[in-house]
Backbone:
């Protein structure tokens, strides 16, 4: 029993679910001790409520740019969030600041800028309406997207196969400069914050990566000091986030 009313002609209850799926509901008239309708005098028709899983992705149009310039963050949902009681929010995870909230559609966008050299991480969530991070009743979240404001002139991009089957896929970071003569390195991290590659020279850094059976991982690369922490120290450039699904067929 999810609700009970002792008077009037209507009875309402607000429900939510933290996991995708559907449930069937019906109403009945009975005494207050009856929780399953065994003493019911009348039953309503049944209705089905479906909580739909919504996947989120977040991308910046510019991941490395000069200080003072603007990058646009765009969240994309796998389904229209309008029919749900939840909202998409975009957050600056470096500061915990709320940026924007959207209540319908499949996209949500905002712009960000910094006046000093810095790197910030951003994430989109699907949750109850909130202005504090993390939001309440979280349903799903995107991978973290990084934006670096710098005057280094360096850039880096990341590619990875969308799906790998029964083994690793090749993840490749590409820079616009040879990092060998610089004091910096090419580093690639997975969603758990584990460094999966470190390259000391060249413009290309590749590694094989397997997230595990039926696991989706979001990968990101940096030009930075050699550092096992994510984000690493002294970031000169941040890449796009590459999402890879590791499948197993056996």
Residues:
């Amino acid at each position: 029993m999810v609700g009970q009313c002792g008077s009037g002609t209507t009875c309402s209850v607000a429900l939510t679910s933290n996991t995708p799926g559907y449930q069937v509901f019906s109403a009945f008239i009975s005494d207050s001790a009856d929780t399953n309708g065994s003493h019911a005098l009348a039953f309503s028709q049944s209705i089905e409520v479906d909580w739909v899983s919504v996947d989120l992705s977040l991308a910046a149009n510019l991941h490395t740019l000069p200080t003072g310039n603007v990058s646009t963050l765009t969240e994309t949902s796998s389904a229209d969030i309008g029919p749900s009681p939840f909202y998409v929010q975009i957050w600056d995870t470096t500061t915990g600041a709320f940026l924007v909230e959207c209540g319908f559609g499949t996209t949500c966008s905002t712009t960000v800028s910094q006046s000093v050299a810095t790197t910030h991480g951003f994430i989109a969530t699907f949750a109850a309406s909130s202005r504090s991070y993390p939001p309440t009743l979280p349903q799903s979240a995107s991978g973290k997207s990084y934006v670096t404001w710098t005057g280094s002139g360096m850039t880096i991009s990341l590619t990875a196969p969308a799906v790998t089957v029964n083994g690793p896929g090749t993840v490749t970071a590409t820079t616009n400069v040879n990092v060998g003569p610089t004091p910096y390195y090419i580093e690639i991290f997975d969603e758990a914050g584990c460094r999966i590659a470190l390259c000391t020279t060249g413009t290309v850094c590749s590694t094989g990566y397997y997230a595990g059976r039926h696991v989706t991982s979001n990968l990101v690369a940096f030009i930075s000091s050699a550092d096992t922490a994510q984000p690493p120290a002294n970031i000169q450039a941040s890449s796009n986030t590459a999402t890879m699904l590791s499948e197993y067929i056996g």
Q: What stands out?
A: Residues 152-250 form a domain with the Immunoglobulin-like fold (CATH 2.60.40.10). The chain has three domains: 7-51, 53-151, 152-250. The mean pLDDT is 93.
